[in-house]
Specification:
Blueprint lengths: L1 E4 L5 H12 L3 E6 L7 E3 L5 H11 L3 E4 L6 H6 L1 H21 L3 E7 L10 E2 L2 E2 L17 H16 L3 E6 L2 E2 L8 H10 L4 E4 L3 E2 L2 E2 H13 L4 E4 L6 E2 H11 L7 E4 L19 H6 L7 H10 L4
Helix pairs in contact: 1-7, 2-4, 4-5, 8-10
């Protein structure tokens, strides 16, 4: 395929570009504020500019990991969050459809309220289970709402849309911004880090997320699918496991409840994603947190 990756300088976009290349596909990538070699500058909110680029590249698939993902920042700047997470991807999906290109949009488990309700085939299941694709959505934050509205806009505008929901993405990335990088920097500097014990998720290794996304496009999948790691962990347990992986004493980790952090945006506490559908449809392995963290370290991080 010929692929366009909008947001190729981020952790998902970088992994996507690498995976597409490994699979023999041709790739054009864009960057926003952080330039990366061999990528094109693009402001995603420049709708006309995005449409021109799609017309010039003539891709078979457009992957759009670009997003306003700072959860508290979205709460402070809701209009910007909607422009970046809803309006811009929707317009890009429409432009892709004009050229018969598929569109891959990346969403989040923050579209759920984290109250621990989960349903399978209309019947209640374990309330502690992570969410399936068809469970009722009810985002608590501006970020979650903007992503949910982005999902709906993209699917409305492009009949070949794939919406991939994921959770707590980590792995090698040029900018070194994800949770594991932050944890390692603070732990080695001897700085305390308050980590919530009551925020549960399914941490996702970015290399696996990218490989699964490419496979879904290759299979011409359409619709909503969850791609995440198989392990349900609290943020604190994930941090402890990262310290163990890098052989760093976790003595500076401070377990706290979310309410003590006084974060501006509400978080879904019992979140995380079920991946039964992905396991049925794709062959890409989705590694657990321990295996993913070991692969991240083996890739040279830290």
């Amino acid at each position: 395929m010929r692929a366009l990756v909008i947001g190729a300088s981020g952790q998902v976009g970088t992994a996507l570009s690498q995976r597409l290349t490994e699979r023999g596909h041709s790739v054009v990538g864009t960057h926003g504020t952080v330039a990366q070699p061999a990528t094109i500058a693009l402001d995603l909110t420049d709708l006309a500019g995005t449409e021109r680029l799609i017309a010039e590249v003539a891709p078979d698939w457009v992957f759009c990991p670009a997003a306003f993902s700072h959860v508290d920042g979205c709460e402070e700047r809701p209009e910007e969050a909607l422009r970046i997470n809803r309006d811009a991807p929707g317009a890009a999906a429409r432009a892709a459809a004009k050229h018969d290109a598929g569109f891959v949009f990346f969403s989040s488990d923050y579209v759920f309220d984290g109250a621990g309700r989960s349903y399978a085939d209309g019947a209640p299941v374990d309330p502690a289970a992570p969410y399936a694709e068809d469970d009722p959505v009810d985002p608590l934050s501006v970020y979650g709402k903007s992503k949910l509205e982005g999902e709906r806009f993209v699917r409305r505008e492009n009949p070949r849309a794939i919406v991939i929901r994921t959770s707590v993405v980590y792995g090698p990335e040029p900018q070194g911004k994800n949770f594991v990088y932050q944890l390692l920097r603070r732990a080695r500097a001897g700085e305390p880090m308050r980590v919530p014990v009551d925020q549960r998720s399914t941490p996702t290794y970015n290399v696996d997320l990218a490989a699964a996304s490419v496979e879904l496009a290759e299979r011409d999948f359409r619709g909503v699918i969850h791609v995440a790691g198989p392990d349900v962990l609290s943020r604190f347990d994930f941090a402890w496991l990262a310290c163990e992986t890098w052989e760093i004493a976790p003595t500076r980790l401070e377990p706290v409840v979310t309410a003590a952090l006084a974060q501006r945006a509400a978080r879904p506490l019992r979140a995380g994603l079920r991946i039964d559908r992905a396991r049925r449809l794709i062959t890409t392995p989705l590694r657990g947190a321990r295996e993913g963290l070991r692969a991240m370290r083996a890739a040279g991080v830290g």
